[in-house]
Amino acid sequence: MTLLEMNHVRKSFDGTQVLRDISLSVAQGEIVSVIGPSGSGKSTLLRCATMLETMDSGELIYLGERAAWSDGSGGIVYAPKKKLKKIQENYGLVFQNFNLFPHFSVMKNITDAPISVQKKSREEAYALGRELLKKMGLEDKADAYPFQLSGGQCQRVAIARALALQPKLLFFDEPTSALDPELTGEVLKVIRSLADLHIAMVIVTHEMAFAKDISDRVIFMAEGVIVEEGTPEQVFASANERTRSFLGKYGDMGRG
Fold it and tell me: 63, 1 in Cβ contact below 8 A?
């Protein structure tokens, strides 16, 4: 089953094209890593996919339901709010900088949306919250506040919060970029563990070894286009000059 389709997506900022005719799809349970140099459009791609940015043109589809499409006269049309709200239940997004509510406890950060948006009972939401905290290795932090946690712990809470809405697809936008190197490993370990849940993931990352290890498919972007995509084995052993040049900055990653 195809969860996400993006067809011929374009996006510009102040006359500069950031996404140039991007098309991709993500299947149920598939893990896709998006790699590429800074400024290649990776984060903008995620923001368009999650509707935090408005596309200039193209088509956005979740589970066969159109969220946005070109209107034929150079503009873009988004589905009505009620339909978009339903479509948005299919995915979650983990930000670079956690975006936790500072005045909420860890448990309230995780359970607020399931209770207020999905109308789950407090008992059901808290049971799921405790289960997710256990999976994150944070069972003892339910009553803590974000300022009392390390960056790695905050990111794990952010992942638990996204999972609490039980999405079919989870987006990660550079999930370790705001962390000290010693905290990066703990977050990557948690993301690896999510593969057991069979949730599809799209991960924008600069952690090449991680992308090579976890992904079913790797997409390499540069200057707003998809230069190459394929299995990790294919992309990391690529003969494409642009791909090899990028991967060459990561030691032996470009040699398979």
Answer: yes
